[in-house]
Write a structure and sequence with these properties.
The complex is a heterodimer of chains A (281) and B (334).
Chain A lengths: L2 E14 L6 E14 L5 E6 L5 H8 L7 E6 L2 E2 L6 H10 E4 L13 H13 L3 H14 L4 H4 L9 H13 L5 E5 L7 H18 L2 E6 L2 H7 L2 E6 L2 E7 H6 L4 H8 L6 H17 L1
Chain B lengths: L2 H30 L4 H9 L7 H14 L6 H14 L13 H36 L4 H13 L4 H15 L19 H38 L2 H8 L4 H27 L5 H6 L5 H10 L3 H29 L7
Helix pairs in contact in B: 1-13, 2-3, 5-6, 5-8, 5-10, 5-13, 6-8, 7-8, 8-10, 9-10, 10-13, 12-13
Classes of the chains: A alpha/beta (281), B mainly alpha (334).
């Protein structure tokens, strides 16, 4: 098997505090995992806020450098990508999707202008060829160039914008998409459409996706493999079903129990049971 | 009616409302003030000797008419509006009988020249430094510049002005410290006169720039540091967009929008003059005129300067509302 992405005991330490009070925060402690090149998958990182999942995403994208350990993408050390040309080549294969769709585009330019410049930058195409590339990418997310043309980001809904963000990520034809909490700011009713979109991308386009979330329900629904992070440690890793059906650690169990059942009556019962258990103590 | 016309009409009514309320308030406040301009003038004129009581009475009536103080409160209010529309605020009390309007017209060019220049320089410098400091957070030179500007920020203009006065007028006397231009020169487009104009303006302008730059700097830096963490900037950085392009196209452009509003407001308030600075350097502008008016109980002068200032600020806000859709697509309508 050839390796698409490989993290080897990656740690990241931040210095926090002021001038006189230098303390260290270990955001990520020894994360190790690898994604296979030949078998595209949805690899999910689950964890609460501050568990280090976003830091991992930023390191994979080359936005932060690991304190120790290495991250290799197709054999290339990500932290060594200094030159503009190599950065571009890397970005053409690894694309990010961010949490807040309203922040993902420069509010002062039209979305199609934005997408055109992405096409020009990564594919080097203009004119009709760019039109075609854009339309193709937008079709994958259920939109078309005509719908987006001349619009600004404030004119569209969060769900639409997040789709366009996915389309933008698709334009260069990437191997890997790093999606950091892509649905946490999208309407609950539209969440599934985005999550399902990831599945189509994996199956139809062969794109691997690193899906970062705190939402166990979608993680369970969509992931092939999952790791659970807690305060910088990877506390569980493995096949999604195996991990989520049968958590080994107390934390992952608590996490799983915190998910409300989708049935509102059952949810209410579960809540009341929990409350009476607490008051009994 | 399409969206923009609707927007225009709504804004225009807002503008009218602001002017109406502002001018009415000015009238009310000066009307409630214990200073009676008629009695002031009468006492000024009868200072030099006893006058026949009947002619004093006649003088009172004539003056009341001159100042628009005849009849009931409502009559006065209506006649005040008439005078505002005609641009006639009656004669000045302190320099009787020169009309207030000609005093204002004499002071306006000085103030506009000095303040427009100072406001624009302050705005450009403050925003440029602030944006750079917010974007290149670790640059030592910018940190130093930032610290200097922030240290100057809380210092009041009159202290800064006095310090500059001491430095450049006393310790190292290279700049003139008082007036708008050399007294013995006639206003003309000659080199000597323009040079004297610039030299006289330097210290007051420096005071205004140093006092004002910190505000722009601080707000711009915080605006920029907010935008720098926005995802679209992160995306551009990841994509290897050059940092100068990110700075100008993504960061500075987005951060400048609220600052443009600020600039327009500052430019509008130019008409009120820089009271303290002008007074300190004896600069013949609107601010000094206003101080003069207040000190000497010159009712009509204060009224005139304040009204002009209110109208100017309201116009500035109106104009900025009109051009804002051009620079920010988010307020573009229809």
């Amino acid at each position: 098997m050839s390796v698409l992405l490989e993290l080897q005991s990656v740690t990241k330490t931040f210095s926090i505090g002021g001038f006189f009070d230098r303390s260290k925060l270990q955001a990520v402690k020894g994360a190790t995992f690898a994604l296979d090149d030949t078998r595209p998958e949805i690899f999910t990182i689950v964890g609460e806020s501050g568990s280090g999942k976003t830091t991992i995403a930023r390191m994979i994208l080359g936005n932060e450098t690991p304190t120790t350990g290495t991250i290799r993408f197709m054999g290339e050390d990500v932290s060594q990508l200094r030159s503009r040309r190599r950065r571009l080549a890397f970005m053409a294969r690894v694309q990010p999707i961010f949490q807040n769709p309203f922040e993902a585009f420069n509010p002062l330019t039209t979305l199609d202008y934005y997408l055109y410049s992405t096409a020009r930058r990564f594919l080097g195409v203009r004119g009709a060829a760019a039109d075609e590339a854009l339309d193709k990418a937008l079709n994958h997310v259920g939109l078309s160039l005509a719908e987006v043309k001349g619009r600004y980001s404030h004119e569209l809904s969060g769900g639409q914008l997040q789709r366009i963000a996915v389309a933008r990520a698709l334009i260069p034809g990437p191997k890997l998409i790093v999606a950091d909490e892509p649905v946490s700011m999208v309407d609950a009713s539209l969440r599934m459409s985005i999550v399902n979109l990831f599945r189509t991308l994996r199956d139809d386009l062969g794109v691997s996706i690193i899906y970062i979330t705190h939402d166990l329900a979608t993680a369970y629904y969509i992931s092939d493999r999952v790791i659970i992070m807690h305060k910088g440690d990877v506390i569980e890793a493995g096949e999604a079903r195996a991990v989520l059906d049968n958590p080994q650690q107390a934390y992952s169990l608590a996490l799983k129990n915190a998910v409300l059942p989708p049935d509102p009556t059952a949810a209410r019962l579960a809540l009341e049971r929990r409350r009476s258990a607490v008051s009994a103590v | 009616m399409d969206g923009f016309a609707k927007y225009l009409v709504r804004r225009f009514f807002q503008f009218i409302l602001v002017v109406f309320l502002g001018v009415s308030l000015t009238f009310l406040i000066t009307n409630l003030s214990p200073v009676d301009p008629v009695e002031q003038t009468v006492s000024l004129m009868t200072n030099f000797g006893a006058t026949d009581p009947r002619s004093v009475e006649l003088m009172r009536e004539a003056l009341a008419e001159l100042y628009g103080l005849q009849g009931s409160f409502l009559d006065q209010y209506l006649s005040f509006w008439g005078r505002v529309v005609r641009g006639d605020f009656g004669p000045s009390l302190s320099s009787f009988p020169t009309p207030v309007m000609s005093l204002i017209m004499g002071a306006l060019p000085w103030t506009i020249g000095l303040l427009t220049l100072a406001v624009v320089i302050t705005w450009i410098l403050g925003n440029l430094l602030g944006a750079l400091a917010g974007y290149f957070r670790s640059n030592l030179m910018l940190k130093l510049a930032g610290a200097t500007v922030m240290a100057l920020h809380p210092v009041p203009a009159y202290i800064l002005g006095l310090v500059l006065l001491l430095i450049f007028g006393y310790a190292w006397p290279v700049l003139p410290i008082s007036g708008g231009a050399q007294m013995n020169l006639q206003p003309s487009l000659t080199f000597d006169y323009i040079r004297s104009l610039i030299l006289h303006g330097t210290l007051p302008a420096m005071t205004l720039v140093l006092a004002g730059i910190g505000g722009w700097f601080i707000s711009m830096r915080s605006l920029v540091s907010n935008i720098v963490t926005d995802d679209h900037v992160v995306y551009a950085e990841l994509g290897g967009v050059s940092s100068s392009k990110i700075f100008s196209q993504y960061v500075a452009r987005n951060a400048l929008l609220p600052q443009v509003t600020g600039l327009a407001l500052s430019l509008g308030s130019v008409f009120g003059g820089a009271v303290i600075t002008e007074f300190l350097f004896n600069y013949p502008g609107m601010g000094r005129l206003l101080v003069q008016g207040i000190y000497r109980g010159d009712y009509s002068l204060v009224l005139g300067v304040t009204t002009m200032s209110i109208i100017a600020v309201a116009i500035a806000v109106f104009v900025i509302d009109l051009i804002y859709p051009l620079i920010d697509p988010r307020v573009r309508l229809g």
